[in-house]
Structures
1.
Amino acid sequence: MSDGPAQDDELELTSPLVPLFVITNGRALPPDHEYEHTTLVTASAVENGQATARTLSPEAGQVMDLVANGFLSVAEVAGHTHLPLGVVRILLAQLEEDSLILARTPIPRAERVDRELVSAVLEGLKNRFGA
């Protein structure tokens, strides 16, 4: 009877030992600009995507579960899945190719406003319309 728990321990130990290239199917990293840390991803609303989602790897399925109800950043997905950022980027690229997710690049920061220009425009408006 002692063989039962030992076999359970072996089964638990095999999952973290899966090499990362098996998870990514040997795919290469996408370009850095494609999936930045702050790129937001969410599940796509494609009807035939459910059939494709059934054939996903467990890691890709976990990513799909995370982004099913809204947007998460690439860094958040990596944090929740405990996978390296590069592996997550590869999985996201594969899921986007299969039209299962949508990726939105981060909104760039606004540039600083030139205060002198704004003051000059305001002064001109006051002179023109008398305020």
2.
Amino acid sequence: MRISLIEEGAEAEDIARLTGYLREELLQLDVDDVTAVPGKELPPGARAAGITEIGEILVALGGSVNALSQVVTVMRAWLGRSHDSNPSLRLEIDGDAIEVSKATDEQVTDAFRIFVEQHSGAGARQ
């Protein structure tokens, strides 16, 4: 699973710090590995103007049937604590992606629930 953290107008250091905090939380879960990918600039022509950096994390879910659900729970809580900075989170599994940005808690919960249901058999994939 690939997790991308995006925040409009953020500095590279801020994205690295936020990505590091999220990575630390994810390492506490029943996952095989959580690897931070070095920050990169948004490609020219990408749809989100004003974004300077994207933080990415690769999560190896392993064989745990609950790992995806645990990751989503951490991400939902992390987003809830980050209302001041309004980051966007993008999850991708096997080319299927969901991006959550500027949504109500209920919308975030529903979107993540649907994503988990669609990928409940994706436990060993990255």
3.
Amino acid sequence: MRAFREAVEARDLDAVEALLAEDVVFTSPVVFKPYPGKAITAAILRAVVQVFEDFRYVREIGDPAGPDHALVFTARVGDRQLTGCDFLHVNEDGLIDDFMVMVRPLSGAQALAEAMGARFEQIAKEAEARSA
């Protein structure tokens, strides 16, 4: 999904949010329960941009015209390097309705969980304000 990748790489979070369906479901690599809705997904992505350092996509997998896409990335959280993948599904309108992230290794996932956990109160407040 070229538009999403370009928006993320440009750190244009308004453009990223515009690509999310209202009923998008975000599945975190470090939390069991998925997060439903555009507001919480956008708030999580805004926080991730602050947490990830040296983020870059290194590969795209999938048919550009199809509904399923995988974007492989590398990043750093503190002193932990990680590799991850954004698995995206787009609906008939071309909007992302399923967004699942996976990361490795475990030490990178743990660093990500800690950094995002420290921001989660603010993430929840932002999501609530956006959905009001």
4.
Amino acid sequence: MHEYMSTERIWELTCPGLPEEVGRVRRWTRDVLHDSPHADDAALIVSELGSNALVHSASGSPNGSFHVSLHRSPGTVVLAVTDTGGGATKPHVETPDEDETHGRGLGLVAALANRVQVSGDDYGRTVTVEISDQHQAPARPSARGVRVGLPAPRSMA
């Protein structure tokens, strides 16, 4: 490899706080990861996190926005979605009743990822998700609300 070339790539996109931007960021993610086995999972994850930013923070307000970054290296994709803050709660996995129509999204994200981390404060929160070829069992919340991965590998069959 040439000394000025890297196998790691980073892309970033800032979206206005409009519902149609979730579809745009999903297509963008698929385009960037077109040759990755993680493209579909990453597109689903970024759709869920973008939607959550619009619904649960000031990102969905008339002047709101959300920011997506995608870091790709061999075998690993790291996605981060940052909202503009103002949410009433910190993102967390819920266990909704079977009849509930909302509340499963972050649990789905955790099931697809090796690691999920939430950082930030009332002025903006970032949910960072790592997907790799060495996929593990779904992440689970710890007692302090920090996400940790379980050590059992997931079958790729």
